[in-house]
Every structure is written in structure tokens, then in C-alpha cells.
Specification:
The complex is a heterodimer of chains A (272) and B (83). By secondary structure, chain A is mainly alpha-helical. Chain A is built from 14 helices and no strands. Chain A is 77% helix and 0% strand. Chain A is elongated. The chains are: A mainly alpha (272), B mainly alpha (83). The interface between A and B is large, with 67 and 40 residues.
């Protein structure tokens, strides 16, 4: 009996010691002490990179894009190792994109990917920059790579589908948005974009079905309602098409250009 | 002016009016078709992902990289579902 109590007490004591050790702080990192010029230069450069990252990111958070670009350009000029090089290129790309220096942005994201070929955020932003530039082949090349590396990524599938739609590649767009909807069946935009792919492929019944799902999920989605009107018109369902165009017109918060077009379409459909 | 000359001028005028009308009709149809194409544009492109600290994309707190690899649209910083 006494032996068991003693053993239990010993175990408790051992555990408490372990817990106490886990809660103590490790010994402080000693400050670097050297008189070697090369080492001192390297330490100064590391410090400069650290400070410029902090200043550059703060400038981006405040929307001071010129200041941010200058900080990241300086970091890149210092030729840091990874991950700082690809990260500085990525951060510079964001600043350039906001400054509408889209070619520079595209080059910076590409450089980030050269430094780190699996940098998914750089791929996402490279596609966004190339879409802004209107460079669809380049955007598509990166989007295909993005999907290959991260086949479950919603961003990769959405971006690839969007680029494919803009290129008129209905099959690739359909594949990407259908895959996105397997994970996210409640995403109305994916249903809308899938419908556009079906329209491109002249599959109007499938397009109608997708647009009806999109509108069930987001009844105020005026662009989807307008698209449904045009699909119904192509299917020869004039009365239903007219009703959809009228519904677009009834939405006071809708896009004015879309409402004007809906008005023209409604009036162009002769009443039965 | 002779009767023949008058007929020629009338015929040419009618032809010009008809051709003009047809051109307006074709132009109008083309502009509606072009407007339709504009209206049937894909949804918006996703916004740029935010900046990354010097720790790089592999840090556990790197939100842009997490957004880029997220499986669900809400976590991927994609445009909202109900525009």
C-alpha cells in the first residue's frame, strides 16, 4: 500500500517537473558579436531587408503603393535568398498592379514563380494581373499550371474557368466550373459561369438549368436573370423570356446599362 | 428635265433611301448583338491577394497562400455569390 502511494507520488513529482520545464523560456539568443567585415555587412543587410519588408507591407496596407514599390525594389536589388526573394517580388507585383504598371506586375509575379515554382498566391495574382492586361494566353498558361499543382483549389478552378470563358474555350470552362461546383454547389457565380460555357457550346437547355440554380441561390443576381432571358429567347420561349427581362427592369438597384438592354429586349419581343 | 431623267433620279433616290435604311437596320442589329455579348460577360475576376511578410508563403499565418489553396470559395477571396 505504502509502496503504491510512494510510486504515485514519484510519478506526480516527475510530471510536475516536466510541466514546469515546458513553461520556462528558453535561453535568450546571444546578440551576434563579430568584428569580421563580411559578417557585419551580411548582418546589416539582413537587418535592412527585415526593416524594408516591415515598411513596405505597412505602406501596402495604407495604399501607399509608390512607397511600397520602392521598398521591395530595394530588397530585390539586395539579392536575398529564399523565401525573401520570391516574397519581395510578389509584394512588388501587388504594388505595381495597384499603380497600373501591369507589365511590371506581371514580370514581378513571374519572377516570384521563378524563385518558388509552387508559390500559389503568386500564381493567383499573376493571373489577375494578366487578365487586367488582357494577356489571355499567358493567364491561361499560369491557370493550367495552378490547377495542376492545386486541383482542389477554388481559386485555381475559378481563374482557369474564367480565362477559358474569355478565350471561348467552352470545354475547359465547363470542366473547371463543374469541378468547382462539386465542392461548392451553393456558389451562384460558378453556376452562372457554367451557364455561359453552355451558351458558348450552344447547349441552351443546360444553360437554362444552371441559370435557374444560380437564381435560386441568388434571386437578386440581375445578370443571371438577363442571361436566362436571352437563353429562353434562343429556345423560342418568348413569353418566359419577356417575363425575365421585365424582372430585370423591376430591380431598381440593378445596373443601368443592363436594365436599358433588358428594356430593349422586352420591347423587341412581340406580345403574343 | 426630261421624263427619262426624272425617272432615273427617282430610282436612284429610292435606291439610296432603301440602302440607307438597310444599313441602319444592320447597324442596329449589330449593336444589339454587341450589347448582348457585353451583357453575357463572365463574372468579375478575383481581386489580388494581399501582401506576404518576409517569413514567406510557408508560414502558418500566410493568409494569401491559404486563400490560394482553399477548397471553398468563401475562403479563397473569390467574388461574392450574390452580386
Amino acid at each position: 500500500m505504502h509502496c503504491r502511494a510512494a510510486a504515485a507520488a514519484l510519478m506526480l513529482f516527475a510530471c510536475a517537473g516536466g510541466l514546469a520545464r515546458a513553461q520556462t523560456y528558453g535561453s535568450a539568443t546571444p546578440p551576434p558579436r563579430t568584428t569580421d567585415v563580411r559578417q557585419l555587412r551580411a548582418l546589416a543587410q539582413a537587418r535592412e531587408i527585415h526593416e524594408r519588408f516591415a515598411i513596405g507591407i505597412e505602406a501596402e496596407r495604407k495604399g501607399r503603393w509608390n512607397d511600397a514599390a520602392a521598398e521591395f525594389e530595394r530588397i530585390i536589388a539586395l539579392h536575398p535568398g529564399e523565401p525573401q526573394n520570391s516574397t519581395a517580388q510578389y509584394d512588388a507585383g501587388i504594388a505595381y498592379a495597384h499603380l497600373q504598371r501591369l507589365d511590371d506586375a506581371s514580370r514581378a509575379f513571374e519572377a516570384a514563380l521563378a524563385g518558388d515554382p509552387e508559390f500559389l498566391a503568386a500564381m493567383a495574382n499573376a493571373i489577375a494581373a494578366d487578365l487586367m492586361r488582357g494577356d489571355l494566353p499567358r493567364a491561361r498558361r499560369i491557370a493550367d499550371r495552378f490547377v495542376r499543382l492545386a486541383p482542389q483549389s477554388a481559386r485555381a478552378l475559378y481563374s482557369r474557368g474564367l480565362v477559358a470563358l474569355k478565350q471561348g474555350d467552352a470545354a475547359a470552362a465547363r470542366e473547371s466550373f463543374a469541378q468547382l461546383l462539386q465542392t461548392d454547389p451553393q456558389y451562384a457565380l460558378a453556376h452562372y459561369n457554367l451557364a455561359l460555357a453552355e451558351i458558348q457550346a450552344a447547349q441552351y437547355a443546360a444553360a437554362e438549368q444552371e441559370l435557374r440554380v444560380a437564381l435560386d441561390l441568388a434571386p437578386a443576381y440581375a445578370r443571371a436573370r438577363f442571361a436566362l432571358g436571352t437563353v429562353l429567347l434562343r429556345e423560342g420561349k418568348r413569353t418566359e423570356a419577356r417575363a425575365e427581362f421585365e424582372a430585370v427592369l423591376r430591380d431598381p438597384s440593378g445596373d443601368l446599362a443592363l436594365r436599358n438592354l433588358a428594356l430593349a429586349m422586352r420591347d423587341a419581343i412581340a406580345t403574343p | 428635265m426630261s421624263r427619262f431623267g426624272f425617272r432615273v433620279i427617282l430610282a436612284l433616290t429610292l435606291f439610296a433611301v432603301a440602302a440607307g435604311g438597310a444599313a441602319v437596320g444592320v447597324g442596329s442589329a449589330a449593336s444589339i448583338e454587341s450589347a448582348l455579348q457585353d451583357a453575357l460577360q463572365p463574372s468579375a475576376a478575383p481581386a489580388l491577394l494581399g501582401p506576404i511578410t518576409e517569413a514567406g508563403r510557408k508560414g502558418w499565418a500566410c493568409k494569401p497562400e491559404q486563400a490560394a489553396s482553399a477548397r471553398h470559395w468563401q475562403d479563397a477571396e473569390l467574388p461574392p455569390a450574390a452580386p
